[in-house]
C-alpha cells in the first residue's frame, strides 16, 4: 500500500468525483497491520463541486419487538461527569485515539437508538427536506449488499477500497439504489445521510448532534478503561453485543451475529446508560471537526477544532472486523467530509433539555 496515493477512478462520472486525501493514504499504509486498515468508508469523498443480502435472523440477539416502538424516540439522561477520553493503547494510532485525557462533560440527554428510517421519513414528510445524496444523485454503497442488476450498471469504483461503489439513485429512501426501498427496514438506522442532513434532522427534533466527547462518554457507560460499551470481551458468554462483521472482509460475511447489513435498532443489548448500538450497526456522526492532535489539558465540554475538512464519526459499523476495521471501540474514531454519505453511516441526536 502506498501513502499519499490517490484513489484511482476506473471511470469518472460527471456528477461524482472521488479523491483520496493524505489521511486516507495513512489508512492505506495501515492496511498491512492487523486491525489498522479500514472498511474504506473514510475514503468516500465528493469534490467541492459537487453498498450480500441474507436472512436477518439471529439466535442470540434481542428481537425487535413492539417495545422498541415505545423506545424509538426515547432519550436517556446521561449524568455529567469526568471520564478518560481516548486511550494510551491505541488500536489504530494514526486515527488519533491517543493520548488518554481527562475530560468533563455536562449532563445531557441522548437518543437511546440510532435514528431510524421511519423517523427520518417523518422528518422528510414534515419538512420536504432534500438530502445531499438526493441532490448529488448518488451515494456510496457497499458492493456486497447490491443487487446484480445495480452492480452491472456501475462502471467505477474506489481503487483503494473497491468494495465501495457510487450508486445512482441511492439515498435514505432507496438504500441500495432505485431497485431497493425501506419498507422492510423502517426500524433500521437511516443511512445515506450527510453531516448536514443529520444536523437538519436533529434541529427539526429540537436536538443536536453530540460532540465527540459526549458520544464517547455515553459509549463508555460509566466504565473506565474498557474497549467496548459493555467491557473488554467482544462476545461475553458467547453472545454478540453489536452488529459487526464476522468472516473474511470484504468477500465473506458469515452473519454469525444475525445480520450481514444493518439490523433493526435495539437488536443488541444496551450499555449501562441504556444506549443500544453505540458500537456497530452504523457509524454515527458527531459535531466535531476532525483532528488527530489532542491536548492533555483537562477539558470541559470540548467541541473539537473550530474548523476543518472532515467531521468525526464514531462507533464503527456492520462492516467492521478486527482484521480490517478495528473501530468498534469507544475510543476509536474515523472521519468523513461533511457531504459524504454511505450505506453504513447514520447518527443519533442529543439535547441539553429533556424533550
Ligand atoms: Ca453483522
Ligand atoms: Ca452505531
TrEMBL record:
<keyword id="KW-0186">Copper</keyword>
<keyword id="KW-0106">Calcium</keyword>
<keyword id="KW-0256">Endoplasmic reticulum</keyword>
<feature type="signal peptide">
    <location>
        <begin position="1"/>
        <end position="21"/>
    </location>
</feature>
<dbReference type="InterPro" id="IPR042095">
    <property type="entry name" value="SUMF_sf"/>
</dbReference>
<dbReference type="GO" id="GO:0042802">
    <property type="term" value="F:identical protein binding"/>
</dbReference>
<keyword id="KW-0325">Glycoprotein</keyword>
<dbReference type="InterPro" id="IPR016187">
    <property type="entry name" value="CTDL_fold"/>
</dbReference>
<comment type="similarity">
    <text>Belongs to the sulfatase-modifying factor family.</text>
</comment>
<comment type="function">
    <text>Oxidase that catalyzes the conversion of cysteine to 3-oxoalanine on target proteins, using molecular oxygen and an unidentified reducing agent. 3-oxoalanine modification, which is also named formylglycine (fGly), occurs in the maturation of arylsulfatases and some alkaline phosphatases that use the hydrated form of 3-oxoalanine as a catalytic nucleophile. Known substrates include GALNS, ARSA, STS and ARSE.</text>
</comment>
<dbReference type="GO" id="GO:0043687">
    <property type="term" value="P:post-translational protein modification"/>
</dbReference>
<keyword id="KW-0732">Signal</keyword>
<dbReference type="Pfam" id="PF03781">
    <property type="entry name" value="FGE-sulfatase"/>
</dbReference>
<dbReference type="InterPro" id="IPR005532">
    <property type="entry name" value="SUMF_dom"/>
</dbReference>
<dbReference type="GO" id="GO:0046872">
    <property type="term" value="F:metal ion binding"/>
</dbReference>
<comment type="subunit">
    <text>Monomer, homodimer and heterodimer with SUMF2.</text>
</comment>
<keyword id="KW-0479">Metal-binding</keyword>
<feature type="domain" description="Sulfatase-modifying factor enzyme-like">
    <location>
        <begin position="73"/>
        <end position="350"/>
    </location>
</feature>
<keyword id="KW-0560">Oxidoreductase</keyword>
<comment type="pathway">
    <text>Protein modification; sulfatase oxidation.</text>
</comment>
<protein>
    <recommendedName>
        <fullName>Formylglycine-generating enzyme</fullName>
        <ecNumber>1.8.3.7</ecNumber>
    </recommendedName>
</protein>
<dbReference type="InterPro" id="IPR051043">
    <property type="entry name" value="Sulfatase_Mod_Factor_Kinase"/>
</dbReference>
<dbReference type="GO" id="GO:0005788">
    <property type="term" value="C:endoplasmic reticulum lumen"/>
</dbReference>
<dbReference type="GO" id="GO:0120147">
    <property type="term" value="F:formylglycine-generating oxidase activity"/>
</dbReference>
<keyword id="KW-1015">Disulfide bond</keyword>
Amino acid at each position: 500500500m502506498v501513502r499519499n496515493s490517490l484513489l484511482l477512478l476506473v471511470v469518472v462520472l460527471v456528477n461524482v468525483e472521488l479523491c483520496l486525501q493524505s489521511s486516507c493514504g495513512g489508512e492505506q499504509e495501515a492496511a498491512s497491520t492487523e486491525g489498522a486498515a479500514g472498511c474504506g468508508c473514510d475514503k468516500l469523498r465528493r469534490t467541492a463541486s459537487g453498498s450480500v443480502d441474507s436472512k436477518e435472523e439471529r439466535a442470540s440477539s434481542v428481537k425487535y419487538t413492539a417495545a422498541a416502538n415505545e423506545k424509538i424516540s426515547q432519550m436517556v439522561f446521561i449524568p455529567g461527569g469526568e471520564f478518560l477520553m481516548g486511550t494510551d493503547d491505541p488500536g489504530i494510532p494514526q486515527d488519533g485515539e491517543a493520548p488518554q485525557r481527562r475530560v468533563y462533560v455536562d449532563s445531557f440527554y441522548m437518543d437511546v437508538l440510532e435514528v431510524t428510517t421511519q423517523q427520518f421519513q417523518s422528518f422528510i414528510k414534515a419538512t420536504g427536506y432534500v438530502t445531499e445524496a438526493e441532490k448529488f444523485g448518488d451515494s456510496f454503497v457497499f458492493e456486497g449488499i447490491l443487487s446484480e442488476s445495480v452492480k452491472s450498471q456501475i462502471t467505477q469504483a474506489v481503487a483503494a477500497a473497491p468494495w465501495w461503489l457510487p450508486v445512482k439513485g441511492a439515498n435514505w429512501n432507496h438504500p441500495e439504489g432505485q431497485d431497493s426501498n425501506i419498507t422492510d427496514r423502517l426500524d433500521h438506522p437511516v443511512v445515506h445521510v450527510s453531516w448536514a442532513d443529520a444536523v437538519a434532522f436533529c434541529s427539526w427534533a429540537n436536538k443536536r448532534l453530540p460532540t465527540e466527547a459526549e458520544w464517547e462518554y455515553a459509549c463508555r457507560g460509566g466504565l473506565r478503561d474498557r474497549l467496548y460499551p459493555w467491557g473488554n470481551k467482544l462476545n461475553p458468554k458467547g453472545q454478540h453485543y453489536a452488529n459487526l462483521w464476522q468472516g473474511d472482509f470484504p468477500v465473506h460475511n458469515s452473519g454469525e451475529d444475525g445480520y450481514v447489513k444493518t439490523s433493526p435498532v435495539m437488536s443488541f443489548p444496551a450499555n449501562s446508560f441504556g444506549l443500544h448500538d453505540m458500537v456497530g450497526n452504523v457509524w454515527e456522526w458527531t459535531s466535531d471537526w476532525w483532528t488527530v492532535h489532542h491536548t492533555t489539558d483537562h477539558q470541559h465540554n470540548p467541541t473539537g477544532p473550530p474548523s476543518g475538512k472532515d467531521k468525526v464519526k464514531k462507533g464503527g459499523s456492520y462492516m467492521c472486523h478486527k482484521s480490517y476495521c478495528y473501530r468498534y471501540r469507544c475510543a476509536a474514531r474515523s472521519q468523513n467530509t461533511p457531504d459524504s454519505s454511505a450505506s453504513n453511516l447514520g447518527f443519533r441526536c442529543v439535547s441539553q433539555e429533556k424533550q
